[in-house]
Predict the structure.
Amino acid sequence: MKAVFFTFLWTFITTLSIHAQLTIVQPQPNQSFKQFDTITVEWTGILMSIPVSIYQSSNNGVNWELKATNVTGGSYKWVNTNNNETTYIIKVVSDKYDIEQFYKSMPLVGHNREVWYSKWSPDGAKIATASIDGTSRIFETTNGLLQCTNNVLNGTVNNVFWHPNSNKITTAGSNGAISVYNTDCTLNNIVFTNSLPMTMSEWNKQGSMLAAASDDGNVYLFNDNSSFVEHVFSEHSGRVNQLEWSPDGTKIVAAGVDNKVSILDAVNKTTKFVLNGHLGGVNFSSWSPDGSRVATSSLDGTAIIWDANTGQRLQILIGHTALVWYVKWSPDGTKVVTSSNDRTAKVWDVNSGKLLHNLTNHKNVVYYLEWSPDGSRIATASFDRTAKIWDGNTGNLLHTLIGHTDLVFAVRWSPDSQRLVTHGRDGIPRIWYLDSTFKQDSIISSPFVTEKKIDSGYVLLYPDSRSAYPSTFVEIPIILTDASNLNIAGVTAFDFDLNFNNTLLMPVGFKATVVDPDSSFSSIHFENIPAITGEIARVRCRVGLGNAPSSRLFLTNVVPIGGPSYVQTREGIFTLLGICEEGGTRLLNPTGRTGLVALTVNGGRIELELDRAEAGSAQLTLTNQIGQIVYTKTLPHSEVATMFESLSTNNFSSGVYYVTFTSATTTQTVPLMIVK
């Protein structure tokens, strides 16, 4: 009987995970098993209650076979039925935290606000980025260093695009300008200025023409290096969300909020087709690799495949349960992949319209996606703060890229299919290296270093004060930041105490211990709280009358589990409303409820009625569907229980928005539809 030899795979974790020391301890290296022997796999480094999946590979990790899922307890057994001499690699991963494979990322530091757009240079040597901070920036891809910065006056940068020769970029700004910059960020040319924001600009693949889309519904056409508008296509009645050149550089497809798609002939300066079929705004349009078809995605929850030569609708891809953001062609033109608010991406056969694969591992909106240039993989970017890589042929999840601390807006493949850049609301794009040289198992000796010291992390209470009035309930969140440093040091969990004034706060469902009778301080003990970035615990309390207007909230006895680490803590504060004192906060209407009472849109204005049950300042914000704040106002201290606010819709395009009213005790969000 031929023996089966086992080796083991050490699994190392990158940022924002809890398994820095997950290792396999059984079977031992080179341990052999005969047919029908019982094989025992044991692992350590994580809580035994956390479910894992177990994989085995017979070809050194190229292909993996799933043996079991949702296994707990640190041990799993199966019987070997293989009668061939085989060397297996065993892999244990955590289903709960989407751990599949772990790579080091290199941060691109420079922006201080959300990064909306990024683009690799055609030669792969540089990355250009566009941000709400009013700048576009160029970074070196070999070392991540910021090469230079382009500053835009009075606006955000919505889009950035490289010339095919990699020698310059064009930007589209909310200030209405289309600008061209050299690679040293010197201004080459201001191609165009408009009275309304420009959504994007893009050269054709030959570099001979430049097209730009605008909020005014027009598509503008220019010659390269010219500020003269050669032609204006005016087929849309509202903002043109996006445009794309055909592979032969002669035509443009444009997607509009007016539910229409236009195919424009840039050579003859004519409109070839206006495609009507979507029942909602069109978010994205994309040419097939051979230029014979167009794919579009819409707010109506569908994607459509069109014949670009006849304008005929070929397939309607129905399956998503929410709006569809993007649709992208596979390099061979046989498939498309779509992303949606329903938290999935889907792979479709374009000839039959059949759903091939449902990519379902994300926990929030799947916003952007791309096929790798070699067609073997799909990358997705999600509002769950991760990016994921999937097998383009099977739909299997290959890798989860964890490192961003906020929504991930986009993921873009390098020209060689070996690297990815991701970016989002945290303002720090990251380059991920997917070849074996940069796998996470070399994290300590890697030439790239983490952004902060390995031996430090932070535990803090909710940074804003919590407030409530007597006999109501308040929830105190406890938040951990920068868990990546803790994980590298081996920390998997925490024990700690939360201290509070027990005459002001009475915890619900927790046993509190008095620690200082003279000052009325008590504490709640927490054990084995996972060390993952974000909210790690929450305490619900009933508010009492108390003998003080406020109480410190602080952590003590913080004990990291799994490895040594120095942990800093930050205090919070709880304020009791209704205490009438100089400079204090008092109730205006104890029987009222703070929040939005009424909201209407009339005559180009948004009218709001607000109930201000408590005094003090409040905040009013308006965000669009992707979380971008488009309006904000601080409402000052008030002595009036009911307030009215009015704002113009002139600066807002048609679509769904969210109005959020925040006071000391309330955060309320209400959806709003603006139709123009």
